[in-house]
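Allow me, if you will, to draw on your knowledge of protein folds for a short while. I have a record of one protein: its chain in single-letter code and its fold written as discrete structure tokens. I should value your view on which stretches of the chain appear to form regular backbone elements. Thank you for your consideration; the sequence and its tokens are set out here:
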Amino acid sequence: MSFDITTYQRLSEKLDIGDIDFDSFREQPLAPEALRCLRYMHDVESHTVCYLRDVLVTRAHRDPDVTSFLTLWNYEEYWHGEAIAGVLEAHDEHAGTGRIAALRQRLPKRDAWRPLTFQLGSAITPHLTAVHMTWGAVNEWTTQAAYARLARLADHPALTELLRRIMKQEGRHIDFYATQAKSRLADSRAAQRLTRWALRHFWAPVGSGVVPDQEVDFLRTYLFGDDDGRAVADRIDRRVDRLPGLDGLNLLRSAVSSAAA
């Protein structure tokens, strides 16, 4: 597994949606369940800059490869959110800056302390970057899988093509995070122990703490609650198992089972 930051810099671009037929959503609207998923995805993609904030206050900002990637990652994720907003607007749904502003107003007050928490953690241990990179890998694996599952369940040609393009960019994000995670974990047993502890005690599906809990439960049950979805979750768990020191966590299987319960 490897990642060439120069190649990524050359390939990174605003998501191309010029030929996506958004009017087709008015002629063939999506089911309520698919729209509910897209609201969630819109909100999470649009919140990326806040995740970026939490990483940049740590030692990660000293690594030029990491900061180069994060700059382009944030740019691409922003346009993912805007593209999904186009689908929601075609259904006369509230989307874009107004929805994002309302979302951020609803965040718990403790969110304001997150940067300080990460900054202090980074001052205490040099291995917090390994946690962030591994966390990013898990989140990108699940995000790409969620898009694939939604495309299959919604079965709408325009949505399938849009999500395919988003997934292609997400694939490069996966390559970076997974490469970084594997390298940093392989170099240190202490990084493995800290990352394993952090994932076991604090990891939750991306969007947790940002969108309401009932929406998190709905998404993981709707997309991953059937046999095909659980098989996808198990594949992600096996990818986590292959990272140094992280076998047996069963993060996705546990998340899906707890939502179903």
The chain is about 75% helix and 0% strand. The domain at 21-260 is CATH 1.10.620.20 (Ribonucleotide Reductase, subunit A). The mean pLDDT is 96.
